[in-house]
Amino acid sequence: VLDRAIAGTRSSCVEERRAVQLAEKRLRDAENRLRLTGMYCRQIEKESLDYKSAIHGLLNAIEVEIPNACAGLDRMVASLERYVALAPPEMRTTPRENVESTAVQPYALPPVEEEKTDAPTRDEDKAESQETGE
């Protein structure tokens, strides 16, 4: 059709209708592609937001919690190194004497005092009878 228009000859009505139908078909294909592209763009954006929200916890752990845990461990290591660097206390005695003096000794209980009653006991009765000569 375009070739004939350039050449200056007129095309037939049938050819023009075919050309219009072909152009309309291409237009429908382009509109369908535009619609699908818009739909896919929205779907990709939704999936991207879902992905970002899903990995937010992981990002927080990587960016915040792991460095905080490392800093805490560094502080613990430094504290333990300072503790290990302390000199042991001076010992006044030989190690053998020190062990014996710190050994657990049995606990001595105080003597139990018996309660005195007004009634004489058997031992007291015997003692009185011997004193009186009976």
Protein architecture, described:
This protein is mainly alpha-helical. The protein contains four helices and no strands. The protein has helices at 2-7, 13-85, 95-102, 122-132. The longest helix is centred in the middle third of the chain and has 73 residues, at 13-85. The model has no long low-confidence stretch (mean pLDDT 80).
Q: What is the mean pLDDT?
A: 80
> Approximately how much helix is present in the residues?
over 70%
The profile of the biggest β sheet is:
none
Number of separate strands: 0
Compute the CA-based radius of gyration: 54 Å
Low-confidence stretches: none
**How many separate helices?**
4
Distance between the termini: 163 Å
The dominant shape is: rod-shaped
Helix/strand/pairing category: mainly alpha
Order of helices and strands: HHHH
Question: Beta-sheet strand percentage?
Answer: under 5%
List keywords for this structure.
rod-shaped, 134 residues, mainly alpha
Topology:
Elements: H1 2-7, H2 13-85, H3 95-102, H4 122-132
Short structural summary:
The protein is mainly alpha-helical.
